[in-house]
Amino acid sequence: MYGSLIGSPLGDEFAVLLPRVRTMIAVFYVGLFAMSFDFVSGYTGYLSFGHAMFYGTGAYLVVMAANGALPLVGAETPFMTLLVVAALLGAAFALLVGSVSFRLTGVYFAMVTLGFAEVAHVFIRNWDRVSDNPRDGAAVTSPDGFAIGVPGVEDLQWSIGRLVGDSVENAFGLGIELGTAELSYYLIGAVTLVCYLALQRVLHSPFGRVMVAVRENEDRARAVGYDTFRYKMGAFAISGAFAAVAGALFAGYRRSVAPSSTFDLFVTADALLASIIGGFGTLAGPLYGHLFHETVGDMLTTESGGLARYLRETLPESLLTADVAGMEVVAVVNVLIDGRAELYLGLIFIAFVLFVPRGLLGTLRDRLGGTVAEAAAERLRRWSP
Amino acid sequence: MSALGAALVSADLLLQGGVVDLFSGLVGVVLDGLSKAALFVLIASGLSLIFGLMGVLNFAHGSLTMIGAYLGGVVMVVAVTGETGGLTRLVLFFLAIAAVFGVMTAFGAAMERTIIRPIYDRAPLFQILLTFGVVLVLDEVARIVVELRGMQPQSDWQAALGTAPDFLAAWYEIAGVSIRGLYLFEVLVGALVVTAIAAFLTRTRYGLYIRAGSEDAEMAQALGIDIRQAFTVVFGVGAGLAGVAGVMLMWDPRYGASVPLGVETLLIGFIVVIIGGLGSFKGTVVAALLVGFTDATMTWVFQNHVSFPGLPEMVMFLVLVGVLVVRPQGLFGLAEVGGH
User: Fold this and answer.
1) B124, B141, B324: residue with CB nearest A343
2) Fold classified for A2-281
């Protein structure tokens, strides 16, 4: 699909507009992280501002375990086991943080979770067990890739990773050829899908109903007999577990971690952006929100296929060297477009908070009067004979 | 066993080193703590004022401090040449503070009118989200401008640091402890600003409005106070104070003007304001002293006993978490402010 569009006469334009496979992999693991953030923040109304600590926990677990720096989980532990360990660890940390934080509400809850995350951030930047230079993080030293697949079945396991990932020449005898990027895409996508379905299941259970009740009116939920503290703790633990899985996927694919890419406040900001743009309080929304984020980021990247490169190559020379307020157009393009995604995303984010508080998916659902799947089925039924 | 041994050895060292070392260590911690407390109160006071009256936790406060640092730096770098005397530099510094305060106050007031005002009716969550969006934009704009001038946004602006007069940059010996003149100057500026804010709150009409509005905004409005205008003024003054803090930090080699300064000071501001109790200026001052001395003590412990560089920061956050657990509304805060 992607290949055919790129090969088309408008290929250059598509290259600017469409996300690349490599980008889509990031959409999956960050999207899963954003979903876990939205799971607790969007559904219970408690803004978990330190969510990056759970993501970082999962990521550091994978890299440190692979380097043999941790007890109990040695370097030989299969990746699928690490994912489960990451989930358990994430849930445990969430319970620890939640037991203190859920004594507070509103702004104070956001602050104290941020406080915990910063303690973890400072700790991980200075923990000499991570690597010789913990400020720069750590990388996996062994050359083996992390394998995703059916546990215990050697033939149904494939490695992920940009350089060390497997590729399949003839998948299931169907003549489909998958490169390393495509295979990683499907494997990470599969894990993300399983996690999404699990979270969706929780939200549609009686437990999920109580979470929404806490968001809408916690006093009333307590008055009708629910022990809201335990429900909030449960939701936070589930959220922390899946955030850690997302972090583990990130580390498994990228094979290196740094404090700035895991425990940082701006990692939580990524989840925040994705949730608000995609739709706060809709589980699938954050994934689309992050897809939007990455697409804008891709368009404004400094690498090939970006908008700046496209403009530089496509616009006529006379226009590029023309003056705008004393500067050449090409200089303006370089300064205002090249790698400036954060600026525009920030503006878009503010606009969404002010004018589209329900986000893309939430607004779409409002328009359709139900979830997209339900409304689409309804419409199809109307058209069928 | 080894821990006991280490304790015995250090106790032994203390006896051998004599009381003099301990005393000078104590003086050093006190001076360091005072200078940090002065900086922290500068950073946090604007945040505290805004939250006290409006219930808005302004995430963009750190970014406003960062922009203030750059603006103050611009004034100093343009006005100061190699021959400028120390006293002239000091005068210029206070002019820079006044100028930055004016510019940032106008900016803050404009910000309140355009984007903060529409969301007062919504859940507190949206105020956090909105001001956080402002952080993303301001940081990136600062990065663009700084890069356009051919400077490195991540590292401190050395040219601005260099405009401090020699008698402030020099080290002085006080009771066996050497301390930079600038740190004593910071204590002075901090005391000045605290006095000014206290006078503003207790002696002016707007101060009265703010205190009345913090107690009960609806009642104040019913009594004929234009609370919307008060909101605009307070948000402006809060932003202006953030700018003043930035100008002070621009001279301090421990901080310096850089883009990451925004998040760094934001977190400090949160710690101080929350420990003190959101909305209580007295609490903010006390908390700044508490956090400043914690920072100074832990820095001393790190330099002398423990080889963990992140110790001061980590302990500061642990104090925050501890206070929130024991007294969620902070030391001097009112219980009903800031919740749902």
Assistant:
1) B141
2) ABC transporter involved in vitamin B12 uptake, BtuC (1.10.3470)
